Every structure is written in C-alpha cells, then in structure tokens.
Amino acid sequence: MHHRTTLVKLLVSTTTAAVLGSAPLTAQSGAKVLTPPRPADTSRTQTVRPATPATAAPAIPQSPVLDSIREVVFRSLLQRDRAGFATLASAFCLGLSTDDFKKATTAADRADPPEPMVRRLASPRAPARRASTCTFSANTPPNRSVTGRALLYSVGAITMGSPDRAEAAAGYNYDGYSAGGFTFSVERTDTAWVVKQWRMEWTAKPNAP
Hints:
Oligomer: single chain
Helix content: 10-25%
Number of helices: 3
CATH topology of the domain at 64-131 and 148-204: Nuclear Transport Factor 2, Chain: A
Strand order of the largest sheet: 2-1-3-4-5-6
Order of helices and strands: HHEHEEEEE
Structural class: alpha/beta
Radius of gyration: 42 Å
C-alpha cells in the first residue's frame, strides 16, 4: 500500500511538471508576430516644381550725360504736364526704364532714379518721389474714379545722335486709368541740355501700370 501511494505521487508530480513545462511553449506559439515595415516605394518619382526666379531689376545704362538728359526730360514732363493729369495726381512717381515707349507694353521693367535727382525735381506743385515708394492699383472696380491716382513718369531708352543731340523715350501711366508714350528730342547748349521738341507716340487706357 505504501508503494502504491508513492507511485501515485510520482505520477502526479510527473504530470504536473509536464503541464508546467509545456505552458511556455503554448504561450510562445500564440505570441503575435511583428512584421517589419515595408521599404519606401522608390518606383514613384516625385515632381519638384522649380522655384520661381525673382524679377531682376533692369540694367539701366549709367553716365553723367544720360542722367542729365533724364533729368531735363523729367522736368519737362512734370512742369509742362505732358500727360494732362498732373493737377489730379495724388503722387508723382519717377522711374527709369529700357523701353522705347513706341507702343503700349505691360512690362514693368523700371528702376528708381538717383535720389539726388529726385530731390532736385521735386517742387510744391509736383512733389516727386521714387517709383518704388508709390502704390499702384489696377483699373478695376472700385478703382475707376479719376482723381487721387498716382502718376508714374518713366524715362526710357536714350539714343545719342551726336555728343550734343539725343532722343529720349518717355512714358506715363496714370495708375492704370490712362497711359502713353513720348519721344523727346534734346540738345546740349553751353549751359545744359534742353528739350527742343517732343511728340506723342501713343495713348491708351491699359489695365494696370
């Protein structure tokens, strides 16, 4: 009887050990398998838009002679009211350009004149300033009224016929309400350059300055 009891205990111990020993294996077999992430899909090409280049300022020819011609043309535009809007303008804006102003153009390739020139041209009647300091608006509602607009005067290409004669292109834009182009014939006297004659090349009502 004693041997039988001992045998039963041994069988129970063996069975328990077997169950305990198999438990980790059962748990491992039910463990979640982690799938590594898929590699990036390199088969698709990504479209990269090139950066929009900044608009470069126009290369304006510089010389004391050219600046003297520009100043006398600006003075004629401001004092003679060649555009016919000077008495209505809220600002008198001066710019330099490479355009010949023979026809209407939408290009705004203007640069500022030298500040000393602007100061010499400014007067109580026409307080001139650099074009970059002016604000322009398109000729769209509610901006169709005539008064209170900025008047832009630009002196463009200059052609030297001789050391003492030249033709200078110029243009005006009354803040999109009206625009036009001129050709000035200038001559050098003993003291300074003077305007001998001028002609209107065109006039129109564009959409913007």
